[in-house]
Amino acid sequence: MHFFVISSKIDLKIFAIRVVLDIKWIRTNPDLFDQGLNHRGLESQSAQVLQLDSAYRKALSLFQEMRGKRNSIAKEIAQRKKEGEDVQNLVKESSVLSEEEVVLERQAQGLFEQLTALLESFPNMLDQRVPYGKSQDENVILKHWGAPRDFTEFPAQDHESLGMNLGMDFLQAARMSGTRFVILAKELAQLERALSHWMLDMNIKRLGCLEVHTPCLVKEEAVFGAGQLPKLSQDLFKTVDGRYLIATGEVTLLNLVRETILESKDLPLKFTAYTPCFRSEAGAAGKDTKGMIRMHQFEKVELLGICSPQDSQDLHLAFLEQEEFLMQSLELPYRVVALCSADIGWTSMRTYDIEVWLPGQSCYREISSCSNCGTYQSRRTDTRYRDADGQLDYPYTLNGSALPTGRTLVAILENYQNVDGSVTIPEVLRPYMGGKDRLNPCGCHPVYSL
To answer: What are the backbone dihedrals phi and psi of residue 128, each rounded to the nearest 5 degrees, phi first?
Structure first.
């Protein structure tokens, strides 16, 4: 039995705009559209959109009118030929109309491409509850959980210093791959694997998610559907054949239902997956160059939900609660932050971040996000659902990191470190570690001492 209902894709009408934002809504609400852009610190664009939209629709109308005339003449020619009449003048007229039709078609096509490219360049419209801000410093802290550990008996080390004696090797990784890569060995590698297994189990048991194993290499349209193109092209790795390495499991989970029609009775859909993720970090020059905070390759357990608009807030909070459950089960101090308009992602309409306390850095650092993307992604992937009244509409999509294993490993090392350089294993992970309760320093090269 399929876990969702697939419907055959219907051929689009000529020049149908790839739906990225609701152009009808922009026509009706140009001021609200501009306010949404202004809230993100962007300039108003409704006048340019509406001007292009009007020119495109006029050109399309002229083209269709010309095609109609030519089709009408073609029928008349066929009819007169049957009756044995002379059709030479009609053939000449048809030829002239055909040439004019080609010109009008090219004009409509050019305007179509301009309008589509403009619409594709816009971010999602923000939820009205998103706080306004000019920088990440204006994010709103909603809650704290857990008290940072008191390191009065010995100074806290950062994860890089700890990891060197536990099976973390940046030097050898750099020799084979360059900077921003890491090798994990011995019990540290086992702990990373244990984290992924435990988080997947919890997502399945507590949220009822369907676990999915997906490709890591995808076509351009899959990345476009997730909203990462064209905006984030510089942050992605592209292969020589034009495909992309995924920057997050959100990309492939979202595309499980691309170009399909879902039934309301099957919603919400909740997926989880453990995937490697690849990011060029083109805009992160000079940031987090040491350690495992910002890597070109990392692993993450992802949550993705697809639901009706009216259920999206509840599912958003359910995803956030699940991420908090994972953090609390690991007993890692954290805070929940509502992202302001200047810091929120391009595809999101509302986002919560979870920031974990890192003693080695004496600060909170982002470890997880949870976003409601509204219809932004379902429009780009042509994913629709049939509501209870049988009407077709676009569902809302939501995603959350639950959790990235690398940053979670960093948090465990720094929060559970001991004076002798060992690290206590969180209790919930011990069954996944064969009962081990501690990572012990090996005192020598992590790989060659196996």
So the answer is: -60, -20
